[in-house]
Structures
1.
Amino acid sequence: MSRHDKVDVRFENRYLNRHPNHIGMRAKNTISNTIIYVVLILMSVIWLIPFICILLQSFRVESTWQVGYVVPQQWGFDNYVALFQTDFKRWYLNTFIMALVTALFQTVIVLCMSYTLSRFRFKMRAALMRFMLILGMFPGMLTMIILYRVLKDLGLTQSNAVPGLILVYVASSGMGYYVSKGFFDTIPKSLDEAALVDGATRAQILWKIILPLAKPIVIYTILTAFMAPWGDFVFARYVSFGTSEGMNVAVGMFNWLNKDQIGSCYTMFCAGGVVVAIPVTILFMCLQKYYVEGVTGGAVKG
């Protein structure tokens, strides 16, 4: 032990002798942290059990029906092979196209709207923000009937449901400005003023100065915009009913669970669930750091 280490140990012992309550505080912190970690581990296990069961069932080949055990008696990739011999490839492609296009357009619209509301001051600005906030409180289910009628008149239902759903997903993107605007509010306006003095335009300030500093909120916006169409079921089923060409994976795979097909498609349904979850899980895990930073940074100011 070096001389400095001995001095540190003596100092710590002297401090603890003078402050006996510090020992009790450390013990309380240790106990509380242990309890928190145990609770989090239990919650994680409970949360992961359904996914583990689906994963195991996807490799079961001795029967395609629902059974009373979890671990397969015979393992194989038959369900995955059969999965790609169905319309699953079309559904997956439809879902990917909708999610990708929606993420692109929605991210651009949200960021532009957020930057405008954060940096500009104009008449009716506060009223507009309150109006969009109140309008966003109404559930989207209330508009399903009228949206379907509009899409049907435009010929964007059933086999043409993909562009129709993209139109609906993108149409109200500007109303999701809340978190992004809060993040932009944390970036000093002096950067904008200095760039304006140097002759930069507002568009150049946004794309070359603000967005590089706002990488977490950009990634957060992309992820949320991508995830919404990827997991949509209710409205997608309402618009693409009756034809396989316009279905996404959620709607298409749901049809395998009816009483006529569940006996032969249950394990294939589990395999489809695994295939759908893998890319999104990998994407989220790789960008989780930026996702958390975007949420916490956007919650600082409103």
2.
Amino acid sequence: MTTPPVPDDPPRANPLDALLRENARARSELLAALDAVPAARRTELWYGEWSLRDIVAHLAAWQEGCAVALESLARGEPPRIPGFDEAAGGEAFNAARAAEHRHDSWEQVMALLHAARERHEAAVRALPAAVEPERYQEGRTAYRLAAMPGGHDQGHLEPVLTWRREQGL
């Protein structure tokens, strides 16, 4: 009698799956809030010098940047967000990205946001195969880069909801 073959180890779940689910939940809430705004009002300036379109472009730029940084980290390189200069700070990055997409249509900035999310999620899913688990534990750089979209989306959700209430939207 022969011994049955031992199956390969089943694929392990990505320990970052919970974080990805939280990012998806936050994005879903934000998109629902944005979808409730009439198209004609999405380019109206109300958040300082920004419109909803500017906020979406801003979110896409940061998520894309975090994806690039995670990809760099996975290659063993220092994680860097393209165009971000620590000396200049986040405001300079934000202003540059908003200006870069100021004339994009709503559909264009939403496509950027969607593409950034896909790239970011792929970069997060690749982490366990590329770096040691302790490098993506809570508080570490890889974790912060992976978690950023959920917190960032939530950070913009409340102002959007407040503005909608004030405007009766």
3.
Amino acid sequence: MFYSKVLNCEIREEFEGVAVLQHSNDEVAGCLTLDKRIKPTQDGVLIYYNVSGRLTEAVEAVTGNGGKIVQAQHSIGPFGFRAIVLDSEGNRIALHSD
């Protein structure tokens, strides 16, 4: 629920424990996997999710869907803008827009 609301896209379970983000044709999308052996972390790799043109809306959806804002929306120079948040499980992610 967190990712479908924040990213504003359909996420469907393709296989047991594997949910695929909405995409068409051969586009790169992404997937979420459930593995009870892996623990959420704020200290690992920082994955960026594209929320092109709707960063403010995406950040506003974070807390209402069980997440937490770590760094509010800010400029990353010529690369656009981002916000760093924790998802509903406690994983640190970045929301990015031009």
4.
Amino acid sequence: MTQRDTKLAYQIYLYLGALFITSLVVSNLIFQKFFYWNPFGDIKVLGASLFEVSVGILPYPITFLITDLISEIFGRKKANQIVTAGIFASFFSMGIVLLADWAPAIPSSPIDDETFNRVFALSPIAVLASMIAYLLAQYIDIALYHFWKRLTEGKHLWLRNNFSTYLSQFVDTFTVVGLLCVFKVLPWDLFFGLLVSGFLFKVFIAFLDTPLLYFFVYLIRKRFGLEIGEEIKLEA
């Protein structure tokens, strides 16, 4: 590649990384609010409400789209580096939130201590559960993505995009909901509903983001003249 192409490739990787980290951090900040995403209303199975999910799930699927895109264009090593950076950013942001919660509000503050604490003072157990689930899911997603990529010799992008995401998203949902129930952040009677609804939502989004992945991969391949399965090698 020319020096200009190399510079552009680094910029694309940087912006993808920024979107990834922003999506991850925001999902941890807003996860305490829940909503129904099923337009047909409340559905219960075995007494558990389906389609009841945290708003933190909204930006989270974007992280899997980005890691798949980075894996496809820049390779496994660069995708893993973004995941590791996301962990650092998440813990750093949680530390800032806890520090802000510790600082006492003045009487004229628009937001008092109690309100701030209820919204932003996240349970350390909840954050830990989210981070453990995140690590497992993202590294599994990247490993499976490249397994399918090698097996298909770089063909069938839809297959590795979806089948890597489905398993990793199940691991993520099962782990985070399970740990939150084990440590009594959530009651066990919510486990089944949150597991099924969260997983179905993520699968639905993964299915929808496949055309987006094809579109962005096409644009980047065309710009850099990449063959199917070929990756851009960036220095560490």
